[in-house]
Amino acid sequence: MNSSEIDIHKELKKYFGFNQFKGLQEQVIKSILAQINTFVIMPTGGGKSLCYQLPALIQGGTAIVVSPLIALMKNQVDAIRSLSSENGIAHVLNSSLTKSEITQVKKDITSGLTKLLYVAPESLTKEEYVQFLQSVPISFVAIDEAHCISEWGHDFRPEYRNLRHIIKQLGNVPVIGLTATATPKVQEDILKNLDMSDARTFKASFNRPNLFYEVRTKTKNIESDIIRFIKQHKGKSGIIYCLSRKKVEAIAEVLQVNGISAVPYHAGLDAKTRAKHQDMFLMEDVDVVVATIAFGMGIDKPDVRFVIHHDIPKSLESYYQETGRAGRDGGEGYCMAYYSYKDVEKLEKFMSGKPVAEQEIGFALLQEVVAYAETSMSRRKFLLHYFGEEFSSETGEGADMDDNVRNPKGKKEAMDEVVKLLKVVRDTKHLYKSKEIIFTLIGRVNAVIKAHRTDAQQFFGSGVDFEERHWMALIRQVLVEGLLSKDIETYGILKVTDKGLDFINHPTSFMMSEDHEYNESEDESIVT
Ligand code: ADP
């Protein structure tokens, strides 16, 4: 059958039992069926899997699905097999298979039975597999978790970098990239590395209007604060993320002692215990899982009511991903993060042993988390801006769902300061990151400023009336408003945008609020 003649609604009902497509699924599927390279960016739970599963099932040939996690591949294969009477409809190809199992997989593919073949990227480096795949009809290659290709993603995997080369050897097959995390920089990396700049891109909104965001100062009373919070949400399911295994154990114990049903989850526990704790959470035998980031990938519990970050995450991508596990059913989802600058310093220290390029990326990503925590503007607007999405604080869905919007700080007119800031960025010739811009404004020198002789300029010290913190807050707000942009490639050099240049010439009102001040003396920082 010609793909244009296929009634995809009927096929959706037949295979998956759903009456309609979710979000952009229909457009994506049509693009895939038309053999067009396709790029899908949808938040977790958006229904990405079906975007490639359905076209694979209804087309001739086998679709190759590249996925980074063996456990997830197995789940997906089981799910597909349950839709059909034929086990051979989906297979995983990996090094753990026996010789006779591999023979069976190849037989099923050759006979046209297998519609979906899941492979880990490292399996595709095996010459023998590539040769075999060259000899059979391939409908398309889907690359799941495509952000793994980018060093700017939160889960960089070098094996993903070979994919383009391998796919090219398979002939002219369409490529589908899918991800739930895509800052503009990661998107660009994916398209470039997969050589699919011609891809039709489908991007769903990342706004989760039912999630409430709050950041609290991390003090030595954090444990009683968490206990109080959980007791206020009695009987509801929640996840608490900690950075270290030791902290996970400690918090789980404190909760248990305080009559809260909680279990720990981290990679240091044996597989049996991990599976047991995960099941207990899914089956609602316990309310709370205290976990490291090892917990959550592929977990589809719809009614998680809160996600608490005991320690700040390393990037906003991770934060979005982890908080995204709350309220998947559209119901209440409370996302609370505890913040302390000491934690940031600890994380920076951990990173200092890594290769320089990796460190720079790590610092830049962490600075975004700091900015998110310290900002006094709409947290939703801030997060969505980070993902390249404009959000209206007035009319956007969920606009009042965060601590900053509910309890706004006083605002004041900052038009003149914005002009001053923009001029300094412009007149220092787009050479500086926030730090040097602020130093220039307040008249402080460092080696970089000396080297460029900025301290001899007449605008040096032009913003001395305000403190460093004030300028930092203003830079963050001006970035989100699009008057400045930050160049990620150079790890954060500021540039005045066209909109910013326009503002210098025709200034208008700019209302700003001061960032939060966190009381460092009461800190309880990450204890490892
Ligand atoms: P993602 O991979 O984007 O995180 P999934 O593919 O796991 O999302 O899908 C999330 C959930 O949505 C799954 O439970 C899936 O069965 C469901 N789903 C997907 N498409 C549809 C649809 N068209 N109608 C109803 N439910 C759907």
Structure characterization notes:
- The chain has about 525 residues and is α/β, with parallel strands linked by helices.
- Helix content is about 40%, strand content about 15%.
- The strands form 4 sheets. The protein has a 7-stranded parallel beta sheet, with helices on both faces. A 6-stranded parallel beta sheet has the order 8-13-12-9-11-10, sandwiched between helices.
- Strand 3, helix 5 and strand 4 form a beta-alpha-beta unit.
- Helix 2 runs parallel beside helix 3 and helix 18 packs across helix 20.
- The longest helix is centred in the C-terminal third of the chain and has 19 residues.
- Bound molecules: adenosine-5'-diphosphate.
- Its cofactor is Mg(2+); Zn(2+).
- Keywords: ATP-binding, DNA damage, DNA recombination, DNA repair, DNA-binding, Helicase, Hydrolase, Isomerase, Metal-binding, Nucleotide-binding, Zinc.
